[in-house]
Amino acid sequence: MTGATGRVALVTGASSGIGAATASLLAARGMRVVVNYLRNATAAEEVVAGIEAAGGQAMAVQADVREVAAIDSMVEQVRAAWGDVDVLVHNALIPFAVKSFRDMTWDELRDKLDAEMHAAFAVTKAVLPAMAEQGWGRLIYISTGLSRRPRENMIALGTAKAALEQFARYVAQELGPQGITVNIVAAGPVEDTRMARMTDVFDDAHKQRQIAATPLGRLAHPDDVAQAIAFYAAEDNSFMTGTTAAVNGGMAMY
After folding, report:
1. Signal peptide position in this chain (predicted)?
2. Nearest to 189 by CA among 97, 251, 96, 232
3. Among 29, 45, 203, 227, which one has the highest count of C-beta atoms within 10 angstroms of its own C-beta?
4. CA 145/CA 141 separation, integer angstroms
5. pLDDT (tens digit per residue) in 75-117
6. What HEC string does the chain produce?
7. What is the reported pTM?
8. Which portions of the chain are predicted below pLDDT 50?
9. pLDDT score, position 206
């Protein structure tokens, strides 16, 4: 990653899974990485320790990205230590109801939509002024193929992520003249994540059907998704904005 040394990257939801893999990869490529977490301080500190053991720089910061005051406090903490955030990877998974439309209540769907969009809105608002002032920034939002290809009982997640993707495109259009790129990484099923461990919803038979539907013959690993994120975060990747990278092994092609 050309010239990445010294850039500050904030990765939300980075104590495990895709977020942890992304934090480690960005640090390996020369960025100073903020490992945001909600509850698991031990896991976040383990990610930081791994980065530091490999010669990188990282710090763990607790914040609920659904709360504006918590986000602002986190950004201030980062600014005091390292300066302004240059790269935002918004990865935090907001809880959602897993059920059919028939069984879902409006409150359940509304709560997911509201929390998903409020988190993205608030964390973007918090980092944007500094990016605009310096005329450089990278905003990367983590989505899912479910935003385009429905799957049973995933209406809350898929609908919320579809809204997030369109939000990102509008932000990309507005911020392009300010030197800020905005892109989406839409992951297919990913091993070793919180969703993958929802065995009451996704049993082994379901997993095997997903693998059979994937031309590359396996599900994604967090590192696969992290590679796409790091591509968008790169200093020299300056002419891609408003795009979506589908990391799904060919399960869906668009």
Report:
1. none
2. 251
3. 29
4. 13
5. 999 999 999 999 999 999 999 999 999 999 999 999 999 999 9
6. CCCCCCCEEEECCCCCHHHHHHHHHHHHCCCEEEEEECCCHHHHHHHHHHHHHCCCEEEEEECCCCCHHHHHHHHHHHHHHCCCCCEEEECCCCCCCCECCCCCCHHHHHHHHHHHHHHHHHHHHHHHHHHHHHCCEEEEEEEEHHHCCCCCCEHHHHHHHHHHHHHHHHHHHHHHHHCEEEEEEEECCECCCCCCCCCCCCCHHHHHHHHHCCCCCCCECHHHHHHHHHHHHCCCCCCCCCCEEEECCCCCCC
7. 0.94
8. 1-3, 199
9. 80
**Which tokens sit at 104?**
């879902």
Identify the burial level of 108 via C-beta atoms within 10 angstroms of its C-beta, where 0-12 means exposed, 13-18 middle and 19 or more buried.
Answer: middle
Which pair of structure tokens corresponds to residue 22?
């992304």
Q: What is the pLDDT of residue 204?
A: 81
Q: Would you list the domain boundaries of the chain? A: 8-189+223-245
CATH number for the domain running over 8-189+223-245:
3.40.50.720
Residues making up the chain, counted from first to last: 254
Query: Which residue is associated with the tokens 């990869």?
Result: 25
pLDDT digits (tens, 9 = 90+) for 143-152: 999 999 999 9
Of the candidates 13, 45, 10, 46, the residue with the CA atom closest to the CA atom of residue 26: 10
Q: Which two tokens stand for residue 159?
A: 């609908």
What residue type is 212 in one-letter code? A
